[in-house]
Amino acid sequence: MAARREGYDTLFGDVARPELLERLRERDPSAFILTMDNPVLVKRLAGRLRESFPSLPIVARARDTAHAAELYKAGASDAVPETPRLGARAGDVLEAEAAQLVDAVEARLDRTGDDKHAAV
């Protein structure tokens, strides 16, 4: 995984499993970027993360403006429109290091086709 090789602390896991939140707490994350291609899952995860990490930025992939509104209501700090440049847009919202992490997550998701993983 490119992000790990570059020294970023990353975590992939099944967001449906409660122990993932415990693992996240142990890692002391600075932000969350949700790029899954599953609008229901992204909304649910944004809500769970907001409950557990009330002050951290949560950037989430939005299908459209209606989905973006749902994500904001669920707790996302920013809802990024679904585009090929999602990583670049997330980088505008977070620090430059976060943009590199998003690119690595997108590449992994593109390779695996897996939509049940989150990155920290």
Compact summary:
The protein has 120 residues and is mostly helical. It has six helices and three strands, in the order H-H-E-H-E-H-E-H-H.
Distance between the termini: 13 Å
Number of strands: 3
Mean pLDDT: 78
Oligomer: single chain
What fraction of residues sit in β-strands? 5-15%
Determine Rg (CA atoms, Å). 13 Å
Q: How much helicity do the residues have?
A: 40-55%
Structural class: mainly alpha
Rough outline? globular
For the largest sheet, list the strands in their spatial order.
1-2-3
Total domain modules: 1
Which segments are poorly predicted (pLDDT under 50) over 5 or more consecutive residues? none
Largest sheet: 3 strands, parallel
SSE succession: HHEHEHEHH
- Give the number of helices: 6
Can you offer a commentary on this structure?
This protein has 120 residues and is mainly alpha-helical. The chain has one domain. The chain has helices spanning 2-5, 19-27, 39-52, 65-74, 86-93, 96-112, and strands at 32-34, 58-62, 78-81. It has a 3-stranded parallel beta sheet with strand order 1-2-3, with helices on both faces. β2 (58-62), α4 (65-74) and β3 form a beta-alpha-beta unit. α3 (39-52) packs parallel to α4 (65-74) and α5 runs antiparallel to α6. The chain is globular, with a radius of gyration of 13 Å. The protein starts with a helix and ends in an 8-residue tail after the last helix. The model has no long low-confidence stretch (mean pLDDT 78).
